[in-house]
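Forwarding the complex inputs:
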Amino acid sequence: MTYARRAFIVLWKDLLIEWRSKEQANALLFFCLLLLFLFQFALGPDSERLAAALPGLLWLGFILAGLLGLGRSFLGERENDCWEGLRLTPGDKSAIYLGKLLGNCVLMTAVEIILAILFIVFYNVDLWTPAAPLALVMVLGTIGLAAVGTLFAAMTTQVRARELLFPVLLLPVQVPVLLATVSATQALLLGQPLADVAHWLKLLAGADVVYVTIGLLTFEFVLEG
Amino acid sequence: MITARELRKTYGSNCALDGVSFELGAGQCLALLGPNGAGKTTLLRILSTLLRPTSGALRVGDADALREPERVRALIGMVAHGSHVYEDLTARENLRFWETMRGGDAAPGRLAAALAQVELDPVANERVRTFSAGMKRRLGLARVLLARARVLLLDEPFTGLDRRGRKWLNEFLLAFKASGGAAVVATHSFGGGLGVADRVGILGGGRLLLDRPAADLSPDALHRLYESLTDSVEGAP
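Prediction (whole assembly, two chains):
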């Protein structure tokens, strides 16, 4: 019970601070808009090219926005030595990781929803018909991305070259998640049923379990430095 | 309550702490004086279990701090430069967060009582971003009060405080000692903490150059000793 309370209070704290400061939300919203403009210029009005590139573009947007948001998720802990305060709290430190992970998942999901809506508006694509199976892929992909991202953000937050190091560490580890999410999204947008992408979903679920477990088991060592 | 034996901390060839030993009982306060770079913060970080010494032994309460840091963390309260506060949370929300993280009772009544004790109850619902340095430090002390810490570690607590703030902190420390707690106060100024200290230690070059009962030292004598001891360390090759 104490573990759940501790994880929840970290989630509550992160969301409340974000709600009040809106630091990440504002930056990510403008970043999403910029991405869409860039994609529009790069692809032009050719709808066939757009349809072929859409799954990749969608996840490229999610991942770039995720990189931006996840990389900052522990920066707030550096202010006023809160990082050390967290180290000094007795008890299982993985609760902190779990709370941070949930907070990152909530923020990333919010950004992904906004980005998906912008894709519909900008490119006139139909994301409504496969909305339910697409949401499942998004949830599984988001957990995988956030699980590793939260851990690596903690690892790099005390490092001077963290902006460089964070994506360099994160992206290679994310290959299974990227492969599965883009492939599953492509199949779903082509109108294939959910059963046809079951193998990708299994890969995603497996990667999520592995990444979250590693995060929970290793976070204490990362926090203690 | 604290027993430190030959604590040593090195960073490569640089020795930040060189064989520091002392004992501090319940209800006592040790004021650690020393110039910048003397090793005060390193010593406090080792006492708080944030930093592991290169060698030496440390017991806090009945726990071995090097083997059982989690048990020590349940006993100590630390208020360092940053005070461990989130600027975009209110004072009450900060206390709620840290008390829940500690696994304690974050009932509104307890939080209100702690805030009243550090005289922050009128600003309980204001964001910490608007607080002065002294108010943030008092909020840090409220966190320590809630945690019922038995050992208080304060790093330069008087810096940035006005006369009223210093008086308040001295009274707080007296009350903490009277409740049986032990406190270590690191400072580089003679203005704060000495009035409530039972013992005075002078750190220089990573070594504890002096550890005497405060009652044995007049302010003038302490000043002279401090200057001669720290000058001799700074002049040493």
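The interface with chain B takes residues 2, 5-6, 9-10, 12-13, 16-17, 20-21, 76, 79-82, 84-91, 96 of chain A (CB under 8 Å).
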